[in-house]
Structures are given as structure tokens and as C-alpha cells.
Automatic annotation (TrEMBL):
Domain Aldehyde dehydrogenase: 32-488
Keyword terms of this UniProt record: NAD, Oxidoreductase
UniProt protein name: aldehyde dehydrogenase (NAD(+))
EC number: 1.2.1.3
A GO term for molecular function: aldehyde dehydrogenase (NAD+) activity
Oligomeric form and interacting partners: Homotetramer.
SUPFAM superfamilies: ALDH-like (SSF53720)
Protein family: Belongs to the aldehyde dehydrogenase family.
Database matches in InterPro entries: Ald_DH/histidinol_DH, Ald_DH_C, Ald_DH_CS_GLU, Ald_DH_N, Aldehyde_DH_dom, ALDH7A1-like
Active site (UniProt): 263
Length: 510
């Protein structure tokens, strides 16, 4: 356990924001009080975006879209390339700010910014590839094809645990596709959003001629998000958060026939088979379950271990859980930082209490207090051995709790794996090709992400990210996720002198 004895954290935040180009008035004198989970202390007071200013930003973004859509896609890609360059230059400062505001260890904070840089590279290349198919027509002297067009002003609602990367997944693709972007970050992490906005503005200035309001930032609570969700000028909202949030957002979008990209809950599981490479498996489990203090949507929450390796694997995990360094995430030796706030801590303790009532044996889970920072919520990650998948196991608790269950037959393990409401990420650890292929097949994992011999956490930007069931069904980042930010038109061109009708229809008017 460690604590950092560096510059006072509030002074460090101000220095970082200054280096990143954020003016003092953007984070002082407002009523949106920002705390760091590292100490619990107040570090900024950001002004909230008013309802009228939100409406103006949406209208301006729509106006910017009308202009931006006429810019050729490869040219739009040049803006995103410049954004990647600016992010690369700001990586040390923005990564550290992510650590301070969200509580991630420093390598994870830097990794999040690297993810932003990576998606900019992906999107810049994509700008020369967004296009449709040429399709065979059944009519002579006809050509049929698909064209793809921008949608409009895209709303992005992001969560505290990935305070900037989620914006970049959406914004880089949306902007390349010809849209404007309106961002409502978590009220728990507005400073990293302010810094990202300043970085974007530098890229826009280098690009030149970017329409005003093309990328807007709105700070505030749920009421700001509600304006995005209900505005007829916002044809798509990408929302990351809880399943409860998704249940509130989705019907409102559906009521006006708007599109939704929902990234919601994830009660992720891994299966450890008899042939698993246990050295590799232990390392993968440790990061997936304890990384970001268990506050990733892809965090490993359930571990299904074959009875033949249970007594070998679980003691190793207990040793790691007892010794992992919990403390100030800015310190090099720390692997587990703080929970975001007291509410997260209370939810974790409530879940552990229920697991005890269900007969579980718990290793860890207790609060770790530092005398000099009583307002922070550091916890020892919890390893919970439990006989069956009870209701609390099926419920996602956003904290470092790993439920461990024993199984005998792979068929039963897959059934338990799939019998939860969520369907985001999953893994199997095996050297048996049949088991691996079965897990990846239609009768295996029912998640949007299914891995073999790696953990559930740490997805790359090249693949589409998202899940099924109560995870929401949305997809962001790589692959063909760009199509969600565009509308498709099917075009048929007649370059002949006759007018044959499809399906042999005859309509002779003489």
C-alpha cells in the first residue's frame, strides 16, 4: 500500500490543465464540483452548461454538420489525423489527468490516451474507404449501388471509467463520416473532457475552416443528457453507462425513431478448463478482475474453474489478491487505485454482505484507509468462492469482486456463463482446440466479445466493441462500426434507352 507525496493534487491538476490549454474560467467558479477519487478532495468547480446553452449548442452542431458533410471524406480524415498528432503530443499530461480524475493507475491513464491516438489513425485511414457496394441489376443497361451519407449531429454520453476514450471511439468515426459531435461527459470527470476539447480545438485551428460548433462539449447532470436524447436535431445518441440508464434512454430515442448505440452492463465471465496454461491464466485473471479497480464494463466478475484445477488455481489467486499493491495510482508500484466514490464502495460492501449470506467464502474486500486521506475509498479486491450462481452473482456490481465457481462439464459451464442478463465480454482458457472452437461457436458464448487465452478486458480498437442482451447491442470503434454513423441509400442508374421493370412487371401505357 502506497500514497504519493508529490505536489498538492489540486495544484497538479491546475498545472496539467494549463499545459493542456484549458483556461482557468473553464474549471473555476462553477457549481459542478469535481473531486479526485485519490484523496476525495475537491479539485475544481466547473460551470455547468445551461439548458438554453445546450439548445444553442445542438442547433449550432446541426448547422456545422450541414457544412461539414460537403467536405470530402479524405479531407475530413486529415482533421482526425491532426487530432491524433495533438493527442500524441499531449499524451503524458492527459494520461496523468485521467489518472487523477478517474483513479486509474498511470499506465492505464496513458493507455487510454494511446487508445484515442490509435482510433484517430484507424479513422483517418477509414476516410478513404467509407463506401458501398456495386450490386448486379437484373435489368439490362442498369447499374445498382449503395452510397453512404452522414446522419447529422451525433450525441455522445460517456461514463467516468473511460472518461475520454469513449468520446474518441465515437467522435473520430462520426467526424470522418461527415457528422458533428455533441459530447456530454460524466459529471464525475469533466476536466479530462475540457482538456480533450482544448486538444481538438488546436487540431481544428491547424486544419483551418472547421465549422463553428462541429465538436461541442456540454457539462452537467442527467438533464443535459435528456436534451440530447429528446432533440429532433440529434439523429443518433451513443450512450455508455448502466443498464438502468439504457432503459431510460432507449425508449425516448425509439419514440422519435432516432438511432441508439448503447454500451451498458457487463457481468463478464471466464472459463478455466483442465488444459489451461495456468501461469498465463493467472496473469489474465488478475488484470481483468482487478484492473481499474474492477470498474471497467469488461471487468472479469465471474470465474468458472474446472474441478481438476480448482485447488491449484484458486490458492494462487488468493495469494495475489492478498499481496497486490493498493494505493495512489500515480505511484509506479500501485496496481489497484481507488473506487470512484463512496457510493461505489457501499455497493461493493452490500454485494459482499449478500454473498456471505449465500454461504460464500470471501478473501479481501475490506476498505484500506490512509490516515491522511480519509475521504478516499481504497479497497482490497475481493475473491468470492461460492457454490452456485446466486442472484448477487448474476447482478453486476461495479467493483473489484470476482465470484469463483467450480464446474465439472464444459456444457454446464457454458450454460452458467450464459445465464445472466448481460452479454458483453467473455473468455475461455484452454489448449484444447475443440473447447476453444465450441466456446466461439453459436452454441458457446453469447457475448459480443469472446476470447481464447486472454482476459475479458483490454479490447483493441480494430474490432467492433459492444455486447448483447442487457449490454445494449451497440458497437463502437473498429470493424464496420462506422456504418452506424451514416445512412445508406440504394441507387439504381438506367444508362439505356429502354425502361424494363424489375420482376418482369409490365406496365404499358401505349
Amino acid at each position: 500500500m502506497t500514497t504519493s507525496a508529490t505536489t498538492p493534487i489540486k495544484d497538479e491538476v491546475r498545472a496539467l490543465l494549463t499545459q493542456l490549454g484549458v483556461p482557468p474560467q473553464a474549471y473555476s467558479g462553477g457549481d459542478l464540483i469535481v473531486h479526485t477519487p485519490i484523496t476525495g478532495e475537491e479539485i475544481a468547480q466547473a460551470p455547468r452548461t445551461t439548458a438554453s446553452a445546450t439548445a444553442e449548442a445542438i442547433a449550432q452542431a446541426h448547422k456545422a454538420y450541414l457544412e461539414w458533410r460537403t467536405v470530402p471524406a479524405p479531407k475530413r480524415g486529415e482533421l482526425i489525423r491532426l487530432l491524433g498528432d495533438e493527442l500524441r503530443a499531449a499524451l503524458p499530461q492527459l494520461g496523468r489527468l485521467v489518472t487523477i480524475e478517474a483513479g486509474k493507475i498511470l499506465s492505464e491513464g496513458l493507455g487510454e490516451v494511446q487508445e484515442m491516438i490509435d482510433i484517430c489513425g484507424f479513422a483517418a485511414g477509414l476516410s478513404r474507404q467509407v463506401g458501398g457496394l456495386t450490386l448486379p441489376s437484373e435489368r439490362p443497361s442498369h447499374r445498382m449501388m449503395e452510397t453512404w451519407h452522414p446522419l447529422g449531429a451525433i450525441g455522445v454520453i460517456s461514463a467516468f471509467n473511460f472518461p475520454v476514450a469513449v468520446w474518441s471511439w465515437n467522435a473520430a468515426l462520426a467526424l470522418v463520416c461527415g457528422n458533428a459531435v455533441i459530447w456530454k461527459p460524466s459529471e464525475k470527470t469533466p476536466l479530462t473532457a475540457l482538456a480533450t476539447q482544448a486538444i481538438f480545438q488546436r487540431a481544428a485551428a491547424k486544419f483551418g475552416g472547421v465549422p463553428e460548433g462541429l465538436a461541442a462539449l456540454l457539462l452537467g447532470d442527467v438533464s443535459v443528457g435528456e436534451q440530447l436524447v429528446t432533440s429532433p436535431l440529434v439523429p443518433l445518441v451513443s450512450a455508455t453507462g448502466s443498464t438502468a440508464m439504457g432503459r431510460a434512454v432507449a425508449p425516448r430515442l425509439a419514440a422519435r425513431f432516432a438511432r441508439a448505440i448503447l454500451e451498458l452492463g457487463g457481468n463478464n465471465a471466464a472459463i478455466v478448463t483442465p488444459t489451461a496454461d495456468l501461469h498465463l491464466t493467472v496473469r489474465a485473471i488478475a488484470f481483468s478482475a482487478m484492473g481499474t479497480a474492477g470498474q471497467r464494463c469488461t471487468s472479469l466478475r465471474r470465474l468458472l474453474v474446472h474441478e481438476s484445477v480448482y485447488d491449484t488455481l484458486v490458492p494462487q489467486l488468493k495469494k495475489i489478491y492478498a499481496s497486490v499493491v493498493v494505493g495512489d495510482p500515480r505511484d509506479a508500484g500501485t496496481l489497484v487505485g481507488p473506487l470512484i466514490d463512496e457510493r461505489a464502495f457501499n455497493a461493493m460492501q452490500k454485494a459482499l454482505e449478500q454473498a456471505r449470506r449465500d454461504g460464500a467464502e470471501i478473501t479481501g474486500g475490506e476498505r484500506i484507509s490512509f490516515a491522511e486521506i480519509p475521504q478516499a475509498f481504497f479497497v482490497r479486491p475481493a475473491l468470492v468462492e461460492i457454490a452456485t450462481q446466486t442472484d448477487i452473482v448474476r447482478h453486476e456490481t461495479f467493483a473489484p469482486i470476482l465470484y469463483v465457481l467450480k464446474y465439472r462439464e464444459l456444457e454446464d459451464a457454458i450454460a452458467v456463463h450464459n445465464s445472466v442478463p448481460q452479454g458483453l465480454s467473455s473468455s475461455i482458457f484452454t489448449l484444447n482446440v475443440r473447447e476453444a472452437e465450441r466456446f466461439l461457436s453459436a452454441t458457446g458464448s453469447d457475448c459480443g466479445i469472446a476470447n481464447v487465452n486472454i482476459g475479458t478486458s483490454g479490447a483493441e480498437i480494430g474490432g467492433a466493441f459492444g455486447g448483447e442482451k442487457e449490454t445494449g447491442g451497440g458497437r463502437e470503434s473498429g470493424s464496420d462500426a462506422w456504418k452506424q454513423y451514416m445512412r445508406r441509400a440504394t441507387n439504381t442508374i438506367n444508362y439505356g434507352t429502354e425502361l424494363p421493370l424489375a420482376q418482369g412487371v409490365s406496365f404499358d401505357i401505349g
